[in-house]
Specification:
- The protein has three helices and six strands, in the order H-E-E-H-E-E-E-E-H.
- It is an alpha+beta fold and 187 residues long.
- The protein has one domain.
- A six-stranded mixed beta sheet has the order 1-2-4-3-5-6.
């Protein structure tokens, strides 16, 4: 299991310049062409740790705009003009509630967005997570549903809607059969 720390790693290079030999869950060709030159290496390393904790495949967004943009708001974590992007979109291949809760447990994610109005790599609607490295306590959490942003800490109504919308798209896994407790044998 990946050890979590609150100490921020400083990695100045873009993900295109990193040594990928220590990356087990991702490869450069999974990202859209030209994206890795605009993304912090630390983001890919953090995705590696997230995937390790999640225990399920994570598919990087196939859209370049899910990783970096040269226009738009300079406060966007995707903004990569005179800096590298430190945020990206991924499609966890598991129940989105599980993926969200694991992301919340990762100290390195400062921003976590759940997008319920995206088309996934399958070409069908799939939940997507935005994960970014902003330094933020508490974490910034939001959901986009039908183009509308929901912030669960802003009000009780938004918190209730956040959990309701997550439940609507979730695909819970069956509970494993209980395993009998192991009996210690007397010596």
């Amino acid at each position: 299991m990946t050890e979590q720390t609150t100490e921020r790693r400083i990695i100045a290079d873009s993900a295109a310049q990193m040594d990928w030999k220590d990356i087990n869950w991702f490869s450069p060709d999974e990202f859209p062409e030209g994206v890795l030159e605009h993304v912090e290496a630390e983001l890919v390393l953090s995705l590696e740790g997230y995937r390790d904790l999640l225990g399920y495949p994570v598919i990087p967004s196939p859209l370049p705009g899910g990783w970096f943009r040269k226009d738009g708001s300079p406060t966007s974590r995707h903004y990569a003009f005179n800096r590298l992007s430190d945020g990206g979109g991924v499609f966890p291949q598991c129940d989105i509630r599980h993926a969200f809760l694991v992301a919340m447990s990762c100290v390195w994610w400062g921003g976590i967005g759940v997008y319920l109005d995206t088309t996934g790599p399958s070409g069908k609607p799939e939940p997507m997570l935005h994960l970014d490295l902003r330094i933020n306590l508490p974490k910034t959490v939001w959901m986009r549903y039908e183009g509308r942003y929901i912030y669960p800490v802003r009000s009780t109504a938004e918190r209730n809607e956040f959990w309701q919308r997550l439940a609507e798209v979730s695909q819970p896994e069956p509970n494993p059969e209980p395993q009998p407790e192991r009996q210690e044998q007397a010596a």
